[in-house]
TrEMBL record:
Pfam families named in the record: 5-nucleotidase (PF06189)
GO BP term, example: nucleotide metabolic process
GO cellular component: cytosol
Stated name of the protein: 5'-nucleotidase, cytosolic IB b
UniProt gene name: nt5c1ba
Higher taxonomy: Eukaryota, Metazoa, Chordata, Craniata, Vertebrata
Amino acid sequence: YILVKPEEHPTFTLFSEENDWAAAKAFFDSLKTTTKPRPPKPKNAVTIAVSSRTLFNMVKERKLYEEEGLERYVSYQLEHEDQPFTPGVAFPFVKALMVVNARLRELYPDSEELFDIVLMTNNHAQVGVRLINSINHYGLSIERFCMTGGESPIGYLKAYMTNLYLSKDSQKVQQAIEEGIAAATMFTCDNENKLSDTQLRVAFDGDAVLFSDESEIIVKKHGLDTFFQHEKEFENKPLAQGPLKCFLEALGKLQRKFYAKNLRITCPIRTYLVTARSAASAGARVLKTLRSWGLEVDEALFLAGAPKGPLLQKIRPHIFFDDQMFHIEGAQELGTIAAHVPYGIGQKYHKSKPLKPKEAEK
């Protein structure tokens, strides 16, 4: 039971579990002393799990842990818990998610179809105070934490209904992908481009990111000419989905909420396909695959093998996903925040080295 003083609110004296909880919620909302929005229910949200080392710059603390051990690391964090961490590589992405949430709440005040950010870390719980203080210092809307005290947090990702997991630990990212969760490894970018503060921009590679690596296997085994012939022959057969398809799907769901209000042009989410494929020779199958999934991207850029870095420098995405490290490095050199998706045949073989038939079959 919840008791309310009659002299303060004479129309509300007693609630029980069987009463109208919708009315109770409205009543207590009227008593709120903070304007901080409530986190959405996980079943309705697009949940983004970020590690503490991607959200904040913890290079100094990490070095202390590696050189002096856990106890000294925890002591240092306690001694400095009133000193906020500086922003990390995922910080601009998280801020952009909050911008989208603000726009959605304006248009749909009662909707819980929003981004929900979860801090997923294997830090000791005592470090949590400094993390909380840092989050509050920057005004971030992060209410759900998972601090596992040295154990891997991967087993909790499904329980948190995670749509995307971002970490600096490539092994954890690989484990998440093996669990069927969209995930990527983020790297520190020394010279970041100035990013939009009104629109979330997300760029995806195609093969082995949005789509499976089946076409890349053809390239490795037989070369480009056979690949072009294969793509033409199977143009109307959709590619199998890759590890980030579900995240593009989640973005599209939120985009459509803006389209429903006739706000396509000013939608605060913009998506890009940035692929090394050639358009005329191998582009149709990609676009038809997206169409068959009921998905779309705002811009599709076919580079025919040209470097991606200069183009990404113009797009200025908050995050760019690719499965090839040479594309990640090329993007970073020109100031793009990039995330590596460790999936597909490209992880085992250099792009310029064709596979022998037995290797490709294996």
